[in-house]
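Action item from last week, closing it out:
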Amino acid sequence: ELALEVRTSQAFPEQWAMTQNNLGSAYRNRITGQKAQNLEDAIACYQLALEVRTRKAFPYDWASTQNNLGIAYRNRITGQKAQNLEQAIACYQLALEVRTSQAFPEQWAMTQNNLGIAYSDRITGQKAQNQEEAIACYQLALAVYTREAFPEQWAMAQFNLGRAYGNRITGPKAQNLENAIPCFQLALEVHTRDAFPVDWASTQKNLGRAYYYRITGEKRQNIENAIACYQLALEVHTREAFPIDWASTQFNLGITYRNRITGQKAQNLEKAIACYQLALEVRTSQAFPEKWASTQNNLGNAYYERIKGPKAQNIEEAIACYQQALRVYTFKAFPIDWAETKYNLSIAYRNRIKGEKAQNIELANAYFQEALKVRTFEDSTQD
């Protein structure tokens, strides 16, 4: 900022624009202060830089700043997420008009990877098509990001490609997961715990998710592999250092233990309940309402199936969890989740031990009729 007092836009426009670009990156990566405000400051700096760094006068610098602006929009907290992602995609696409594979292969690959992330997260448009766009971008990036030349970037692109395959809608689900798993395994060859502990933990978590949903192979072993991956991730994703990732992994472990085949069913359900309860220590209704509701609904399922403890009390706990979830899961805001939770309540009330049997059956029927307004009851999804 001091440099801008000397490098004014009038006296030294090129240097002023460079300083604005660099200041934008400093704000974007800033740890101190409010993240949302830092990103707003970054965006403002990049936009100022682009007043001088035009495509015609400084094409290379213009493309570099467009890429930086795209990153800032992708991570932006203020404003509508969908619109921010559209802005990010537009910036990356502009940057690629100059950053071609022939002229600037490394920068081209970097921007393709960034564009892939934006497409993966995109809200606007068809989800299936967005994932296809993301996969194409990552594969293009990997044409330049070879393991020999750019090992760290190669591992990052493999990780991103694995996530995209894991979320892919087009094509057979079984094959998509088979494509995802080796991507994560390749990434782990570079993203080791010693060299890149945070990336290693994120990759372990995503590999665990892929194993949980895996269709090929023995289900029992896939679930055991998932549990092992999540437990490894938690060695780095501690509550103190990474509370959000820690809670997400605890939630995933809860779902996996609930569906575990190996071991005693009663003990697995106790572990699932403990995991969900830990996740709720971070996933509060105030901080993360949607994730809080999802965790409450899943905790209700675990209590309903619980073997240990008095059955009557377990069902009461399940009902309480489902009712909590419905504080967030309204018909208008989350119709599918609302219907699933209503359905769960209907089952719980139908088998309720406490209270008047006739009243419980009446409530069960009422909840079931409400659920039929949407009627899509599927297994819980992991983060």
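Closing note: Residues 101 and 241 are 39 Å apart (CA to CA).
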